[in-house]
Amino acid sequence: MDDTVSAVVGPCIACQATVNTPSQKPVKSTQLPNGPWESLAVDYYGLLPSGDYVLVIIDKYSRFPEIEFTTSTSAKATIPKLDRIFSSYGIPIQLKSDNRPPFNSKTFSDYCEFMGIQHNSITPLHPQANRLVENFNRMINKVMRTSSIERKCWKQEFFKFLRNYRATPHTTTGKSPAELLFQTRPYRVRLPELSTSHDTDNEVRERDAEKKLQAKQYADRKSYVKLSNLKVGDLVLMRNERKGKLQPVYDPKPYTVTARKGTMITASRVIPRHVITRNSSFFKLLKVPGNECGRGGIKMNGTCDECNVFESNIIHPEQLGGEEEIHENEQDDNLIGEAEEAVDNLVGDHEAEEAEQRQDDMVRRHDVDVDIQQEEYEDGNGQVQRGRRPRQRRAPRWHEEYEMGDY
């Protein structure tokens, strides 16, 4: 019985889009760069009380932070600040950023190409992929809040924090960021000086690997952490980015996986036409009923009574657009027109059924109203009247007289 119920209710798209299915992929640690200032992570923090933004750069090897204040997050304002930093520390080999402006602009891409920098963009809406700089931004946020509570100059407190952070041994590497970046000379601050060792690369790599393994084991112990088995051609539902109380967790309109690179998945659909790239945790494999139609189609409006929807209008996967159909559609727009026409016909039939159902409900409600209006009742004089019974009004209860008992 349970298997039968699961087979009937499982393919319901409305149910699948409503039920939250937590999904998290196992942590994949990145290797430590070969040396300092080879691979950097960049991001923006702001808005500050002064109206400025903070351009934050973190060296992945030494964890050394560098910042610049900007009045705008545009590429025109960002590139001169990067030029100043690169003139002091050198040009890196790799630069990782998110997919938001200004890092997704053509101007920034051309600048990286001109400087010989390999620009790597993380998956949209997945800041965990740039965790190093995101964690540093969280510490900046703490400094700004504490300075506001203590009524201190936030800029002085910010630079004080920056000096001390650079000179404090990092929990992962065991060495201070300044010591790893400036291995030929000490980095002097007001804190007590620490003994330095020039043969630190092996020690740093061992500690880095150990800490990353601990973090991976801690994150992967959750029950819903598992490898994604999505592949090109699968029908999936995508998690809604901004959902209200009545909005489903997942978009009920299926997507088709068209490309996959690690945990980055690109999916598309024909109607409405949309292509999107997200982390694999944003997608859920769509359960497809096996015997609803001879071609393995899916029911767009559900298959269970819980949804209170029709069980007709079957759309086949090829009408939603798979990888092969997407490539063909790029070459021949006629196929898109045929697919849209096919779905429009199905949706049109469904809308016609809904309109007919609404009309029947209106007639049914009208008949009930007519019956009420033709009701027979006796008036105050004992005469039989026909029509709607008049409203009977009573005086408020606080107008009643109270009877006091004997005391």
Automatic annotation (TrEMBL):
Composition bias type Acidic residues, residue spans: 370-379
Chain intervals for the UniProt region annotation (Disordered): 195-215, 350-407
Record InterPro entries: Integrase_cat-core, Retrovirus_Pol_polyprotein, RNaseH-like_sf, RNaseH_sf
Organism per entry: Paramuricea clavata (Red gorgonian)
SUPFAM superfamilies per record: Ribonuclease H-like
Single GO MF descriptor: nucleic acid binding
A Gene Ontology biological process term: DNA integration
Pfam families linked: rve
Feature: compositional bias, Basic residues: 386-396
Name this polypeptide is given: Transposon Ty3-I Gag-Pol poly
Basic and acidic residues composition-biased segments: 196-215, 350-369, 397-407
